[in-house]
């Protein structure tokens, strides 16, 4: 398993207000994800980004980071083998992500995810 991207997930009470702050004040660009509970703002020059979310659609709590990996099944197996607390089970979400949540040392919740290809 290899990490391919790390994204900060910021919990905000008002998506519109937070989006306006990051786009209008900081000049980040909105990347519409087509979901009403999460959005992404992106630095135009670098592609670095932040996800803003109210409440995760299916997870029991919001993650602090999303870690995209090249093999989520392997990540899941390693987490289970090591006895890490699984906060949200390995799930294929309707929006095209296969993921699970794991609690890291210190209590931080990580969303371990991979884009899901339904035809694969």
SSE order and pairing:
Blueprint: E1 3-11, H1 15-25, E2 29-31, E3 38-42, E4 49-53, E5 65-69, H2 72-81, E6 86-92, E7 97-103, E8 109-115
Parallel strand pairs: 1-4, 5-8
Antiparallel strand pairs: 1-5, 2-3, 3-4, 6-7, 7-8
Can you walk through the features of this model?
The protein is of the alpha+beta class and 120 residues long. It has one domain (3-115): 2,3-Dihydroxybiphenyl 1,2-Dioxygenase, domain 1. The chain has two helices and eight strands. It has an eight-stranded mixed beta sheet, with helices on one face. The model has no long low-confidence stretch (mean pLDDT 93).
- According to DSSP, the number of beta strands is 8
State the CATH topology: 2,3-Dihydroxybiphenyl 1,2-Dioxygenase, domain 1
Distance between the termini: 18 Å
Strand order of the largest sheet: 2-3-4-1-5-8-7-6
Uncertain residue segments: none
Helix content: 10-25%
Mean pLDDT: 93
Q: Outline, from the CA principal axes? A: globular
What string, H for helix and E for strand, traces the elements in order? EHEEEEHEEE
CATH superfamily: 2,3-Dihydroxybiphenyl 1,2-Dioxygenase, domain 1
CATH architecture: Roll
- What is the C-alpha radius of gyration, as a whole number of Å? 15 Å
Domains (count): 1
């Amino acid at each position: 398993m290899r990490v391919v991207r790390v994204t900060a997930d910021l919990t905000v009470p008002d998506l519109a207000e937070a989006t306006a702050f990051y786009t209008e004040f900081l000049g980040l660009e909105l990347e519409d994800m087509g979901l009403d509970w999460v959005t992404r703002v992106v630095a135009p020059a670098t592609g670095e980004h932040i996800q803003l979310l109210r409440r995760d659609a299916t997870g029991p709590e919001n993650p602090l980071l999303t870690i995209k990996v090249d093999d989520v099944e392997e990540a899941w197996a390693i987490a289970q083998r090591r006895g890490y607390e699984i906060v949200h089970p390995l799930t294929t979400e309707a929006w095209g992500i296969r993921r699970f949540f794991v609690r890291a040392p210190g209590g931080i919740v990580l969303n371990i995810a991979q884009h899901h290809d339904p035809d694969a």
